[in-house]
Amino acid sequence: MTTKRSRSLSSAAADSNAPQNGIASLLSPKAQGKRRVTTSSPPPHVGAPPNRLIIAIDLDSFYVSASRLLDPSLIGQPVGVKQKGLLATCSYEARALGVRKLSTVRDALRRCPALILVDGEDLTWYRRLSAKVWRLVRGVVGPWDGKVEKLGLDELFVDVTEMVDAHIRGREEGKTREDAGRVFFQVAPDSEPEAGFWYDTLGKPIGHVLPLDSHASSSEDTPSSTYRSRLILTTHLALHLRNLIHSQIGLTTSAGIAHNKVLAKLVSSRHKPAKQTLFLPRSAEDVVRFLDDEADVRAIMGFGGAIVSKMRESLGATSSEAAANDDASPPLSVSLARKAFPLAHLTTLFGPRLGIRLHGLLRGLDDEEVAPTPLYPLQISIEDTYRGLKGQEVVAEQMRLLAASLLRRLEGELMGSGAGMLSSEPGKAEQMEKQDDRGKWQRHDMPLFLPGEQGNITGKEAPISDQKVIVRCYRERESDPSESSTWQRYPLTVRLSIRHGWGKRTSRSTAMPLDIFDVRTLSRRERAERLAGVLMGLLLRGGPGQGQGQGQISGEALLGGEGLNLINIAALNLATRRPAAQPLRTFFDAGGGGAARQKRDSVDMETLLQLPEDIRREVAAQYGIVLEEQEAVVGAEQESRLDTGCEEDEDDALWDDLPPIPAMDPSSPANIASSSLVCSHCGVAEAPWLQHDHARWPIYGVPAVLLGSATASEGSGA
DNA sequence: TGGGGTCCT
DNA sequence: AGGACCC
Q1: Low complexity bias located where (predicted)?
Q2: Reported pTM
């Protein structure tokens, strides 16, 4: 591809050590390296033009627009989408009334009492819509090897270099349709010749152009394949993509077009909403001048809080200024950053790799590729925040709720028929629910892109605690996994992250219990129970060096001080194939042997529970089954089948009839013993939720490898 | 002061 | 496992 493109461009070598003058310095170091092989050295000021064509697309106030698709009565209103105490985003009507993005709900309401609040804590709907946009764009550029990268839920990077150059090539070969000074950009390879758009050959860009005088001053006659013409053509393609997103999904977008990601993104936010901007520099000086318009270096993607804080600190040391607080201090401007931080300074502060990168970014150099977002994510996590959650029962209860929602997401996003996410083709109705006046969830099919035609729909309005305010709330309809649906990815690892009242996050991970994949034989409640048990084990395990001796639980985590502020559960390490059974069950199996797991799978749980108690216990022990758990689960399931007719309709009622996870009090061993099995390896009796991890951490804080082949007496520290 | 994600060390 | 970045 590089060679193809190099032929049609005035390709020229640009040594990466050459002074960064003229257009040559627009090139990223990487691109320079690639192209260097093609020709001999050019004058430094007329190097090859940058050759990538990047579109950054930003969905305008995404959560608000998405909410308006569900509830057209929000159109034209000042709307804030809240997550707990914070406004994730707000509508432009709200911004006109003084509401700011990321302000507190309290603050926003003070400024704008008429603000309509929408609950945005459940991301299901936004996630679906976001994926739909991604698929739509990828469907257009994908056939030409175009790459689409999702950044969060509301931004896309699109690399259309191949696509645009292929069109130009076709045009030069006379293969395009032309009519009265216009050319048809055919967007589908061959199958749909009508898919595409017409553009005029005058070389006029669509939308805004920066720098302001750039386009006017370059009216020279240039071949269509110069980088300026290619960028201008790209603005037409950007408009086409934005029109598709608007017509097929009903969302407006802003976009930036430039030759790299960082500039495309910067420029995309210069004109919002529903506008696009092309960055068309004539020289490196143009780039630097543009960047110097930014009063805050943080506007450049890659300069985050920690980096800027460190830079300011370093600056303060030399300019004898107080190393002030992070937020209170004035922003660091791009021009000051560039002047005050030569390459050597940056590499000293941040290491060679990051230092070089930051140095380039300050000059608009960015060689970061558009990394195609894979069909399946690398991790899926859910989290919730609390105000000092403490007490084992309370924590365990939340753990079960979180485990259940994680499983719901895993089923929704990792199961399918093989093509992945079939449930959500463009144009197909999304099945959502909203609450009626009485708080009952009602079906509400959402045909996309018909805003305003739903009549007067009002979501259920719930008061939030201290404010006399209503919050509108929507949720996804539960869909039953079809018979043909199977797991497409298997998370091998589960990670628990928590935050204590004061500090930072800490996390621990362990193997995912394989039971969660048994959607056919186990209800979600059962699987959630298993997962929650594993997570409680993770929570109580404590890190190495903590809670030694008596199997002492690091109880401060649950009981002490401020309690938990945040719980996050992540499924990661997503494998394409179902993993082999873990030896965790057999570890506790009295008879040992790898066959135990298979035998256990063949046990009919309901049949087992019919047996007389003594026999039941014996069989259960042999198969590594925790009886109390199974009894409770099966019992609850039968009960709920009896009176509801088996639909899992009410989320809230789902857990009411479940017994709590047995209390894990190390000071009462009897309690443990009554609901646990004894490890055949070291003899310790473990509560159900501690069994999973026991193989790795037989005694709290003591790794298994240090124990050697412990006897029962050595191992039973509890 | 949210509920997510990615990559690097 | 943690820390940085992104939204």
Answers
A1: 8-18
A2: 0.76
